[in-house]
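INTERNAL AUDIT FORM
Audit reference: QA-55
Scope: verify that the stored structure record matches its stored sequence.
Auditor: D.O.
Record contents follow.
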Amino acid sequence: MYNTQTKSQSYRNIDKTFGVYLKLDQYYEQLYSKYFKKTYAGKPSKRYLRIVEKIQRLESVDYSEICKL
């Protein structure tokens, strides 16, 4: 069973709309964790670039648009 299958339908709908902000916090936690490497051999690491891209994409979501839903 997947993790989302154990949650109620109403919780999954709320998670679809407001989950963006919860995921954003998780990505910031990963980015600023203790042993996280931002660079490898003088270049930005692939993991760092993926997390930064996800953060930028999630920050571009307008909160007022979500509240209108």
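Auditor finding: record pair retrieved intact. Residues 9-31 form the longest helix (23 residues).
Action required: none
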